[in-house]
Design goal:
Layout lengths: L1 H19 L10 H18 L2 H16 L5 H21 L5 H5 L11 H4 L2 H16 L4 H50 L5 H55 L4 H10 L9 H11 L1
Length: 284
């Protein structure tokens, strides 16, 4: 929703201000300029990035339109799920979790939290490290080092689309200048024409610079930032799992372990201590 509002504000203010200043919108309509700038920038984007990153970038676009799903309600579900899993392990032993983590879709515990179950990255992270805890082959320090390495790898992959779009945003003003220079070349070839013809061609050339800068700072750059924010939110979600599991592995009770996890949530989305306690009791 924020993306749509932002786009409307950019378009309204830029073009509205132009019209209020006495400009004619049709004077800005030059499809060849758009082809040069948009096509050139997209071509550079394709050259600079692997097919995997290109595919991930297009896949990320609908996600930013929906906005971040990592709100307080989802964190409450995550912490309640972790509490339930850790309590079961505490009462019945870690081996009691084996059937749940091998087939989460069929688990009566995971089925109570469909939003978490639908988050494949979080589920893979959670079940993989619960599996290691069940086997008992890793201590807390080794587990933390491995988690950090995996999270760093995921961080690089998750931020690749935002870096790709930001690279395209950085190039758009340059392609705007290319379009403007080509327009000047056309103008110079028509130097013998009257002032009106030359003026129209110069104006068309300047539109190229305008379009390149507008697309860069008004659209591509903000979209890249939005993609990066969404990736950071996902990374924070996984960090909550990491901190909670490590607290449990270090011997803390499930109640205290989820408090460790709660503390690393961003303040705006962090549930209160009492709020979390009441939610967990509700889910029992």
């Amino acid at each position: 929703m924020n993306i749509i509002v932002g786009v409307l504000v950019v378009l309204g203010c830029v073009f509205g201000g132009f019209v209020l200043s006495g400009g004619q919108l049709l004077a800005l309509w030059h499809p060849p300029e758009l082809l040069i700038i948009g096509g050139g920038a997209f071509g550079g984007f394709v050259i600079a990035n692997s097919p995997t990153v290109i595919k991930a970038t297009f896949k990320s676009l609908p996600a930013i339109l929906k906005g971040s799903p990592y709100k307080k309600a989802l964190y409450l579900e995550l912490l309640a799920l972790l509490y339930e899993l850790l309590m079961k392990a505490r009462k019945e032993g870690l081996m009691s979790l084996e059937a749940h983590i091998e087939e989460p879709d069929k688990s009566p515990i995971f089925s109570e939290y469909p939003k978490i179950l639908a988050n494949h990255h979080a589920m893979d992270f959670l079940t993989d490290y619960l599996r290691l805890m069940v086997t008992g082959t890793a201590n807390a320090l080794e587990m933390e080092n491995l988690m950090d390495l995996e999270m760093e790898t995921h961080h690089q992959e998750a931020h690749a689309p935002s870096h790709a779009v930001q690279g395209m945003a950085d190039g758009l003003p340059g392609f705007g200048i290319v379009a403007a220079v080509m327009g000047v070349v056309i103008t110079m070839a028509s130097i013998s024409a009257g002032p009106e013809v030359i003026g129209a061609k110069v104006a068309a050339a300047l539109v190229g610079t305008f379009v390149g800068i507008l697309l860069s700072y008004g659209f591509a750059g903000p979209i890249a930032s939005s993609m990066g924010t969404l990736a950071a939110d996902e990374g924070k979600f996984i960090e909550v799992i990491k901190v909670t599991l490590l607290a449990s592995l270090n011997g803390y009770s499930p109640q205290v372990a989820i408090e460790f996890g709660r503390k690393v949530i961003y303040h705006a989305e962090r549930p209160g201590f009492t709020e979390l306690e009441e939610y967990v009791k509700q889910k029992k």
